[in-house]
Design brief:
single chain, 273 residues, alpha/beta, Rossmann fold, Alpha-Beta Plaits, 2 domains
Length: 273
């Protein structure tokens, strides 16, 4: 992993291809990438101007836009607020929601689902301490953003050990994320989602994936040599991403540059712009 990924030649190379290719692929995480974190995740709206730029990108019809999130797939479109809904892979790749509205959910093994029920009973005690539990088809995410540090330590001490024990006896994985702890069914990550999308595109399609959290690192690693991995985060951290953008200004500039590059393709091909 590198310590200071920065814009430069990788971005220039990507945009040179975007100005020529018939099709392109833009994959994006949501929380922390397109939208700032909020204590109440239901209030996590995109940074100003982001939805409008994504609308413009999708309108040209020369970019496939896919949101790859740890959230439930159905949560994304109402928060994102674009006129046209994007394709969404939710729950770290266990759900796929097409722009047409068709939803598919990969069923987790029964042993893992039974273990999640046990994990839920542990989390009930954490909720009484002020944490918030998010239930998904293949995971449980315990959020403690906004709690005092002393309370966060107490919640972690209560839950982490018992969840880790469940992971040793069932096909579950315990993961830290920015603002909480998640126990999820093993076997799928965001890497599986981005690679599945890439396989559906021609081999020479210019592509990028933008993410912010440690849960995006599997995708960054998997995309090496296949698509540009971009870390979107106010502070630097060790990462497998090749480029680092600070939100919201550098993120907005990247998306606007993408929109202009694809508008050139739409214009030259006779597509409406």
């Amino acid at each position: 992993m590198t310590d200071r990924p920065a814009p430069g030649k990788p971005l220039d190379a990507l945009f040179a291809r975007l100005e020529q290719a018939a099709d392109a692929l833009l994959m994006l995480d949501y929380d922390g990438t397109l939208a700032p974190f909020r204590v109440d995740p239901a209030q996590a709206r995109p940074y100003p101007g982001i939805a409008e730029t994504l609308d413009a990108i999708m309108q040209h019809g020369a970019t496939r836009v896919v949101v790859v999130s740890g959230r439930r797939a159905a949560d994304i479109a109402p928060l994102l607020g674009t006129r046209a809904p994007p394709e969404v892979w939710g729950s770290h790749g266990w759900e796929r929601l097409l722009s047409s509205g068709a939803l598919s959910i990969e069923r987790a093994p029964q042993a893992a689902l039974d273990a999640l029920i046990a994990a839920s009973s542990v989390a009930d005690r954490a909720q009484r301490m002020g944490a918030r539990l998010e239930r998904k088809p293949s995971s449980l995410a315990l959020h403690w953003r906004g709690l005092p540090e002393e309370r966060i330590r107490a919640v972690r001490a209560l839950v982490a050990g018992e969840w880790a024990a469940l992971c040793r006896t069932a096909p579950l994985t315990l993961l830290d994320f920015d603002g909480g702890l998640e126990v999820r069914v093993s076997g799928r990550t965001k890497a599986d989602a981005v690679l599945a999308v890439l396989r559906e595109c021609p081999p020479d399609t210019p592509a990028a994936f933008l993410g912010d959290d440690v849960t995006d690192e599997d995708a960054f690693v998997a995309l090496h040599g296949r698509a540009l991995a971009i870390l979107v985060r106010p502070e630097e951290r060790p990462t497998a991403a090749e480029v680092w953008l600070r939100p919201p200004e550098e993120l907005a500039a990247f998306l606007q540059r993408w929109q202009r590059a694809r508008a050139m393709v739409a214009l030259s091909s006779g597509r409406p712009s």
